[in-house]
Amino acid sequence: xxxxxxxxxxxxxxxxxxxxxxxxxxxxxxxxxxxxxxxxxxxxxxxxxxxxxxxxxxxxxxxxxxxxxxxxxxxxxxxxxxxxxxxxxxxxxxxxxxxxxxxxxxxxxxxxxxxxxxxxxxxxxxxxxxxxxxxxxxxxxxxxxxxxxxxxxxxxxxxxxxxxxxxxxxxxxxxxxxxxxxxxxxxxxxxxxxxxxxxxxxxxxxxxxxxxxxxxxxxxxxxxxxxxxxxxxxxxxxxxxxxxxxxxxxxxxxxxxxxxxxxxxxxxxxxxxxxxxxxxxxxxxxxxxxxxxxxx
Length: 296
Hints:
The protein is mainly α. The protein has helices at 2-40, 49-52, 60-66, 69-101, 110-118, 124-134, 142-148, 157-160, 162-187, 191-199, 205-232, 236-241, 253-263, 267-295.
C-alpha cells in the first residue's frame, strides 16, 4: 500500500510543479490585499504622527468615507464612466466592427482590423499625452480642426464635455479587446446555423436578434466581465489628462484613492476606499460569472 501511495505522489509531482506558478501568483495577490485590509483599520499616514506610530482605529476610516460627499461623487463618476465607455461604447462599437469586418468579401479588411488592434499596444500614459494633443482647446487641436470644417468654434473638450471625453478615450483604448473576443464569437457561429436560420425565414435584424445574439451571449458576458474590471482600475490616462477635474467631474474612484493616499497623505483612508472598491469589483465579477454559468 505504501509503495502504491509513493508512486501516486510521484506521478502527481508534475501537476504540483505546473500549479506552482499559479499558487505563487495567488500569494502575490493575496499578500498586498491582506495588508490593505490591515492598513484600512489604522490611521497610517505618509507624514505626521500617523507615519511614525500608526494606531488601530477600527472602522473609523469607513465611517469617514461613507460621510464624504467626494467619495459618493467618485462612485457616481466611475459608474457613468463604466456605462458610457465599457457597457455601451466598447460593446456596441466592438460588436459592429466584429460583425462588419468578418465579411470575407470585404476588400482590405486587414487595414481597419490592424488599426483597431494597434490601440491595445499604446500605454495609458502615452495615450493620455496623445489625446491631450488631439483635444487641445484652441484651433490647433486636431479635434477642433475637424469641427472647424463644419463651422464650429474651438471647444475645450475636457472642460465642456469631461466625462464624455474620457469615456471616448477609454472606448478607443478598449476597442481592440472587444473586437478580438466578439470576432471570435462570430467565428464560432457556423455557416450551417446561418443557412438553416435563413431557410426558416430569419434574415437581417431577426437573424441577429434570435440567432446571432443568443449564441454570442456568453462571449458578451465574458467581455463585460473583463472590461468592467479593467475600467474600474483605470487611472493613468484620466489622471494625466484631467487630474480628476474640472471640479472633480472626472475623478473616478482610482484617482480619488490616489489623491487621498498620496496628495492628502491618508494611507489608511485610501486603503479603506480601495477595500470597498475591491469588494464592489468582486460582487460584479461573481454576478457576471453566475450569468455566464446560466448562459453556458
